[in-house]
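Researcher: For the record, we're logging two predictions in this thread. I'll number them. Prediction 1 follows.
Model: Prediction 1, sequence and structure:
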Amino acid sequence: MKNKDNVILLMEETGCDQGEAELALILSDNDLEKAITKIGILLKFITAFKIKLIFPQDNVYGLMQIAVNMKNAEILRFSMVASHNPAVYENSASMDWFSFEKAIFSYRLDTGAMEDYTQNIEEKLKEHISKELKRLSLISSEEISNIIKLFFTPTNAETEIVSEELTLTQFKKLPDYDKRQNETSFTGYDLGFVRLDAEILEDSNGKSAGKLSEGDIVLSMINDERDIAHYLAHLIGGRKGGNMIPLPAMVKKIASKNDDFEIHLHYAPSITGVAKIKNNKLLKVLETKNQPWWRKIMPW
């Protein structure tokens, strides 16, 4: 592959600019994979703003997190919660960004959460902040605070903001908050950072577990009961309105033991689902490795 092609691919993959891509390739002897790793470790162009909110007159407390690409002022992630529970405000904005966002999601499930209010303003607030960020020459915690206060005017909103610079690798990597000890899979396959219990939906006209192939797309459901599982399901589209919902997943690995199969499902680079299934179960397959589902009904 030509060096110019590598530069373009590296820019698309990491969001770096041309000069940074060229430098990373020089330092990596034009090895694209090594260059991606180097960019991910060295470049800090993502800032997570961890925000505590309080509306003194209304006894409402909130948490908000905004992850911003500082190169183009694009919001990469946005989450918030408003609650009547004062314990929400006791969380420290100095905790790491992932733990802070996890706390936000946990409090959205709390009895004091203002669910309707949060849902009604979340997207509007995100759009407001996104629009205002584009107008700034320098994005800072002070400017973020002013933007938020403007949105809630005339209601008095007080903020406390801590910013955290992240490399691309740090932003993409999800820490394993619930590492399972003394548990081995059938194959010893590397399950990534987080392993979630999952199931594959059944279909009377489907395919048995023994006939699945790596690369098949199946319809799955995350059935893990842990808080971290609910949080991650929310992020990847497997949870809506407080309930788990089916979502497609690619078969990553298949292992068998007696009449049981352990199917490893790919949800994200750091999130793996594991479904344990009897061989006689017929499973819902949306797409096979060799033939997309749409080609079955539109063969031309």
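Researcher: Logged. Prediction 2.
Model: Prediction 2, sequence and structure:
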Amino acid sequence: MSEQSKFIVTYEINYVHRVQVGVIASNKEAAILSAKQAFDHGSIWDDTQEMPLLFDQYIEIGDGSLTFSAEPVADFPEPDESVNDIRRKENAFKACNYLLKDIDSGLNFAMEVFAGLPSVQAGNETPNFG
């Protein structure tokens, strides 16, 4: 068996990130300034009533050429903050999904447990879970 080495492989593809937002302004320059300020503050993607997000896509440009390169390394570095942000969002989404599943299961279980209690059926009182 041949000896294995570590590599950081990078791929790059040419694209444009096109974002369109709705802006109400007195003129074209004021609209652009408003959008630039929102971009600088990181709020252009907030999708608010005052500045609705209308379009947000990555569009390949040119021939869409995809290039790969590899660099040998002794060890892998810590992930960049962009990866940590993706992981945080994915974990938050998973946590919400698990919570929703547990709430649903918990609700079904509670309904089965308390289905025979007269006070719950009649709606006279809330059951004491403690």
